[in-house]
Amino acid sequence: MSHFKKVIAFMLFMLLLIVAVACNSSESGGEEENQSDDNNSNSNEETADSDGGESSDEPFSFSLMANLHTPEVPEEKVLEEIEGITNTDVEIQWVPDNNYEDRLNTAFATNSLPDAVFLKNQTTFIQFRDAIEDDQFWEIGPYLDEFENLQKLKDNVLDNTRVNGNLYTLYQGRPLSRQGMIYRKDWADNLGLEAPTTTEEFMEMARAFTEDDPDGNGENDTFGVTDRSDLIYGAFKTVSSWFGTPNYWGEKDGQLLPEFMFDEYVQTMDFFREMHENGYINQDFPVTSKVDQQEFIKNGSAGIYVGSMGDVISLYNDAVAINPDVEYDVHNYVEGPDGEFGVWAIPGFGNLVMFPKSSVETEEDLKKILGFFDSLMAPEVANLSYWGLEGEHYEVVDGSAKVTDDQAKFDREVKPYQAIGIGEPETNGRYEGFFEYEPKAKSEELFKDNENYLIEDPTVPLYSETYVQDGARLQQIITDATYQYILGQTDLEGFEAAIEDWKSQGGEDIIEEFNASE
Amino acid sequence: METTTLTPREEARQLKKMKKAETWRRIKRNKMIYLMILPGLLYFLIYKYLPMYGLIISFQDYKPYKGIAGSEWVGLEHFHRLVTSSEFWMIFKNTLVLFGLQIFIFFPIPIIISLMLNEVRHTFFKKGVQTLIYIPHFMSWVVIVSISYVMLTLDGGIINAIIESLGFEKINFLLNDDWFRPMYILQVIWREAGWGTIIFLAAITAVDPQLYEAARMDGANRFRQMWHITLPAIRNVIIVLLILKIGDVLELGFEHVYLLLNSSNRNVAEIFDTYVYVAGLQQGQFSYSTAVGFFKGAVGLVMVVFANWLAKRFNEEGIY
Question: What share of chain B has pLDDT > 90, as a percent?
């Protein structure tokens, strides 16, 4: 009997406990003071601090969330090395790049953001603008001057990330434009074609690669361009810059308007429609994944890939296993009908890192975390996080870093950590890459060449509340209409109707707000 | 003589007390049984009822850092935005059409298969077929949709290769809004029909064999036996499952639809679940997407109550 009572008592106790925990966690959503209770890593920090005092030898521990570009979580060898030098204990929460937005929003919604949060890209940054304005993240502008390396970060890029003139983020540099084309040099040589310099020649190459049997096997088994379900990082946006379409937004008659209201955008759609109708591009490109897209060029089905020219090395490494004679080349300069070449630019940063006040509680902690990123920008540590261990993962050749032959080991042990680096070679002093594979080396040069022809996005420093709230959903209307137009499922009238739809659902307000904030 | 002085009111109270004591006694007597339902109760309380607290945010302009207590109250604004948005009717219609396909096309299929399997006398063959048709259930939608993609794509898909070799035009299955619904329901049937037969087959085994014997004596053939004995015998199982199915009305398989969704078929393929995912998790509109989800749940509840009422009207047992 008494035994039975104990069981009941125990179960009631458990029930109480569960309810208590549930209540506590929902309360802590509301009150910020409670947060240290439910975040272990924080309370660890505090004890570490109080134990060690000012000149503590105890490694400072904090957590960090970053996007993972490889299929597996990396081995910690490189991280341990970095931790040793910076005297920290970093807990990295890796999130696969594909569902980074989900995780970021979920962590934010449940108030469980780590101490340092990478944002992945500009779109997510814009989403957080509301929270930033509401003072949920540390403003770091005033502290930068205290750090030897962080103050080197480029002002013009930092300006692109300011919110109401205040700085909340550190940026990870990225070449302003890596866009261009990769094509089968051997096929072009077979057919006596040169790299295209105009959009017409580009079309001609796509045609010839489709119809003129470029691989000389006597079968009609090739096509021109391989593309994927991505209007931005796929081929579309780059080709649209050749035609002179603005980068997201442009000025027409003294007013800022979205790219799809420009004639050049429609010309680009016509261009793609023609390629699609004639079979010069993979017919199912609106549902093709990046992996499948690259597979087409690797296995010799397609001959042209428009996107980041740096991809040439990974394409080559895989393609050469299938066909040892494969030859690629990279190319950037393609003039539009108006005789000018342009290429769209990103705002100079790839990734951004922010520091939520909910997890970083004191200024002291913030400075320690900033200190970590500061040392991450010292050449020694920057090389470590980007290239790995000298002698093991890379060698220095002519003052540049050359990855050792074991690319797989590099991808496994080093590559993921490139996602936490700050700055770019000019500011953090890390080695530029040395590439034996000639097209890859050429692509690095073409990145620099692209900088002479950049088309910038004029809305980067501007703000539109409607855009933050509804921009992504509204963009879907345009994206759908663009695909439908290219596939011949709608005509110009239908596309214009979609623009009207976009306008009436909030686009009007976005235009107004952007123009007003100029 | 105290009892005589009791007023009716006091009497009622006394009665209530007695009843209460009686209930307690009963609980005490069957304490082990009550203890056994405790985990189930806890499960529903913790995982189904406590989270409903979060529905509050659909009436707020929820900001995660302010929490539920601190966020601004906006009343029905999000619901208003949903109902007046131009996509609402499209999504509502798409959801109902897919639901209709589930009920009218998918639902009868496991019943038919079970009836057919029941007629198979060769045990080995019967078990073999059963196992084979269960298997797809254990495959994830990602796998199934990927297989269909590889087979149906215009760029080297086997089905289009066959169609072409027979001298017909290639068909764009993936980028066509006419093909989305057939593709959806065929994939659902392929994956779930076998699994769905389990309960019906179990119900069929419970039918008294004497009934069949008697029917045979009266000269009923196989088809007649099926129609007059098997089907009526499992009728209440069918009804209960149908009501439960309707309860899942709007659970059309988020993963499945999301994988099939693309720019060309959005006007027929966008459903509440995909809309909630994009608006809520990808674009961070927590309150709005909660409102959409809440609305969906409410529609589901109405449908179940309606279906149950309908079942009762036809003198069948409902689920409650």
Answer: 22
- Asked if residue B298 and residue B191 are part of one domain, the reply reads yes
Residue B127: domain span: 76-313
With respect to residue B173, please indicate whether it lies within any of the assigned structural domains. yes
Domain edge (last residue) among B44, B70, B96: B70
**Token pair in block for residue A209:** 């690669």
**Residue B126 included in any domain:** yes
Of the ranges A122-136, A378-392, B301-315, the best mean pLDDT one: A378-392
Cα gap A179→A182, rounded to integer Å: 10
Task: Find the CB nearest B65 among A4, A106, A136.
Answer: A136
- For chains A and B, CB pairs below 8 A equal 111
CATH number reported for the structural domain that contains residue B218 in this entry: 1.10.3720.10
Query: Do A27 and B69 make contact, defined as CB atoms within 8 angstroms?
Result: yes
**Distances from the Cα of A154 to the Cα of A149, A348, A397, B79, angstroms:** 11, 9, 27, 45
| Same domain as B99, residue B64 | no
pLDDT beyond 70 at A58:
yes
- B-chain residues within 8 Å CB-CB of A501? 86
On the question of pLDDT at B42 being above 90, the answer is: yes
How close A241 comes to chain B (CA, Å)? 23
Probe site for chain B from A105, A120, A210 (most B CB atoms < 10 A):
A105
Instruction: Write down all domains in chain A, each with its CATH number in brackets.
Output: 38-176+348-430 (3.40.190.10), 179-344+454-461 (3.40.190.10)
Helices (H), A388-507: 407-413, 425-428, 438-450, 465-486, 492-502
> A483: which chain B residues are within 8 Å (Cβ-Cβ)?
175, 262-264
Q: Check CB contact under 8 Å for A105 and B281.
A: yes
Same domain, B93 and B164: yes
Dihedral sign computed on CA atoms, order A193, A199, A200, A205: positive
CB-nearest to A286 from B262, B283, B286 is: B262
Mutation site, B56, B65, B78, B152, interface A, largest A CB count within 10 A: B65
The residue of chain B nearest to residue A478, with distances taken between CA atoms, is B263
Measured between beta carbons, the chain A residues lying within 8 angstroms of B74 are none
Q: Which of B42, B68, B263 sits opposite A29 (nearest CB)?
A: B68
The per-residue pLDDT for A514 is: 92
- As given in the structure block, the two tokens for residue A299 are 């296995």
Tell me, yes or no, whether B318 lies in a domain.
no
Residues B202 and B218 in one domain: yes
Confidence of residue A38 (pLDDT cuts 50, 70, 90): very low
**What ipTM, to 2 d.p.?**
0.76
Could A106 and B281 be called an inter-chain contact, meaning their C-beta atoms sit closer than 8 Å?
yes
Lowest mean pLDDT among A2-16, A82-96, A131-145, B79-93: A2-16
Q: Where are the beta strands (DSSP E) in B76-173?
A: none
CA-closest candidate to residue B155, choices A323, A307, A505, A279: A279
Domain annotation covers residue B110: yes
Q: Do A105 and B282 touch (CB under 8 A)?
A: yes
By Cβ distance, the residue of B35, B50, B266 closest to A22 is: B50
Radius of gyration of chain B (CA): 27
The secondary element (H helix, E strand) that includes residue A179 is strand A179-184
- Do B15 and B64 fall within a single domain? yes
| Structural domain total, chain B | 2
Tell me, yes or no, whether B57 and B90 share the same domain.
no
Do both B35 and B90 map to the same domain? no
Regarding whether B155 and B48 lie in a shared domain, the answer is: no
- CB nearest B68 (choices: A30, A229, A282): A30
Domain boundary among B70, B100, B118: B70
CB–CB of A331/A196 below 8 Å? Answer: yes
pLDDT, tens digit (0-9, with 9 covering 90-100), for B209-262:
898 899 889 888 888 888 888 888 888 888 888 888 887 766 778 889 999 988
- pLDDT, position A18: 56
* Torsion of Cα atoms, A262 then A264 then A268 then A269, to 10°: 30
